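Deliverable D5.2: sample structural annotation.
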Amino acid sequence: MGDGKGEKMNSPVNLEGKHVLVVGLGKSGIAAARFLLAQGVRISVSEEGRAMASNSETVQWLQARGVYCEVGGHSPELFAGVDVILLSPGVPLDIPALAMARAAGVPIIGELALASRYLRTPVIAVTGTNGKSTVTTLIGDLLRAAGYQVFVGGNLGTPLCKYLAGPQEADWAVLEVSSFQLDSAGDFCPEIGVLLNISPDHLDRYPDYAAYAAAKWRLLANQGSEQRAVINRDDPEIARLLAAAPPAASVFSFGGRGFAGPLVVEEKNGAVPGGAAGVIRLGLAGKSEEHEEYPLPDNELALEPNRQNALAAVLAARLAGCPPAAVAPALAAFRALPHRLALVATVEGVRYYDDSKATNIGAVNSALQGITGPVVLIAGGLDKGGDYRLLLSAVQEKVRAVVLIGSAREKMRAALAPTVPVTEAEDLPAAVRLAASLAAPGDAVLLSPACASFDMFTSYTQRGEVFRRVVRELAVNGDGGGGLPGHCPVMEAMFA
């Protein structure tokens, strides 16, 4: 496993005259290879996965440009013989070839490390265990509503290197940033760093939770007093890290459990929710008379856990210069991303929610908090090393029954069976039909797996689409009970 310390560079990376090895030919790796070639950098590539064949179109394109391509494995000799390694985020830090490179003194960087030298656009970077895609998207929407040109990408959608290769005409680059990317971020330093939450995840990659949390905290490590850090003051792990190692940046906070009214915060500045009707209140600590208020519209953002997402996004956007007049229209127009607690249909009085993006325990807990009424939970998939006992409190409070699928189902059954009736299904369509038989009118059937999808599907997206297809079949074959909605409202779990 990786040691959680990350790969640190002491100065902006300079690749002039260097031989760079691009490791991993996923979307980010291919974009990085194209960018470096455009800069005149000599590169080689190494791809271990079987999906990239030696005669693939990508490999042939690279070879036609004189690039040495290693496919089907990582040779330590190649890794130790280059000047710099550019690592794709999905490649583990502990593979033997990287150990050989470290021993040879070869710097190991990721895509974010290129930003300090090549990026000419100020950055808002968003990370967290859950909610980062929604917050990244919403910040982009808020800034566009204010008339800014915005690039939205990174771990979400378009790789940063693709933007680097273009004219870089945006006023702001809003990047979703994963812990894997931060492991090799070098001197990456966003103008505004947004840290949403930290809960156990990816423990199949990190040696322990502390190492994973340290990777997330690395977002703020290179900021100085001229940069700004936006943090969730209600998150226990963030509070612990803040006390142990306060960032040098100016700290702004958001949060506030309960929505009874305005809250006063200890940090210098903060955004807090106030008003039972759904209001974002933005103001100075200790000065409740000096504040801005933005009503939350009657869409996905008015529901938990997206209220917290809205707080973080509005605070970051205002810090970036978004005027108050642009906030309310952007919030009203917001439509969140697919497979984040999306209502697919109501069939015979039972609501069916697609939360396939919930690949960790914190996401499932958040989804359960956001749903009213009893729940039949469909969970399981490829285990990521989490402790499913952390679901027990929410399951005991909300869940009528659990239907398990995938390779993690035995581990999940051992954790959950003492609390709630647990059954198993061979595949997702069978699980949906079984859950339908267990649910009563007024209940919700929730696909919120707490696991990765790769034991049964190519992605969480495919998993969600299978769920939606089977639910629609139920709607057609049943009496409808309200049937398919005119559109599928989507709300992303903040801690998902």
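Annotation notes: The mean pLDDT is 86. The chain is about 30% helix and 20% strand.
The annotation will be released with the project's public dataset once the embargo ends.
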